[in-house]
Amino acid sequence: MKIDGKLIATMVVLFGLSIACRPPVTSTQDYTKFNSENPRSILIVPVVNKSVDVTASDYFLATISKPVAERGYYVYPVNLVKRVLEDDGLADANLVHSANPKRLRDLFGSDAILYITIDDWTAKYAVLSTSVHVAFKYSLKSGKTGEELWSAQESMVYTPQNSSTGNPLADLLSAAITAGVTKAAPNYIPLAQQANGNAVFRVNQGLPLGPYALKNK
User: Does any domain span residue 180?
Assistant: First the structure.
């Protein structure tokens, strides 16, 4: 039987995508420093954006406050934080990340500062399908000492699935249209929300319950 080379290529691509979607193997996080600091308030500063999408940082910031607040911490309004930092000469996210955490504590009175880096925020086209990729690094540092209290990494991949109509030509056309639409207007927000939820709530890896969590009320 003759094997279609294009079919093999498609299978390889799909297999590669499935591997990229598998969650990383993780161990229990060391919360010794976190518990010692016992932070009540978290300052989320502007994110460092390493992707080619200049709008990624603003879109991402709209997704991160809610899960951190739901975990039981007071979260400073991110838009207000951004304006205050700009007025203080820290308009660039890289400058904020390289600044002394104690300086940020003096500005806002925060117990801890959450630094986030966007490593990936792209839509990638391959064999009549467009996959949306996001990847983030999270680092929570003490406002008192600057030491890292908690860290996480998350990556997500979404590839739209096309249902079969039984008509190969129609299915091919549908796949091409779906891939084109996804590439033209990829929806990163659900992936960012899921990645943030995983980072914050994952058992033995996420943020410990804060003082304002519903469980503590």
Answer: no
Residue range of the domain that includes 110: 29-160+187-216
Give the domain CATH number at 59. 3.40.50.10610
Alpha carbon separation from 190 to 7, 14, 60, 157, 165 (Å, rounded): 31, 21, 10, 11, 27
pTM: 0.77
Q: Structural domain tally of the chain?
A: 1
Q: Which helix H or strand E contains 100, and what residues bound it?
A: none
Closest of 2, 15, 4 to residue 126, by C-alpha: 15
139-162 pLDDT, tens digit per residue, is 999 999 999 999 999 999 887 654
Residue 4 burial (10 A CB sphere; 0-12, 13-18, 19+)? exposed
Q: Using CA atoms, how far apart are residues 150 and 207, in angstroms rounded to an integer?
A: 7
Residue 205: count of CB within 10 angstroms of its CB:
17
Write phi, then psi, for 3 (nearest 5 degrees): -100, 125
| pLDDT tens sequence across 108-145 | 999 999 999 999 998 776 555 668 889 999 999 999 99
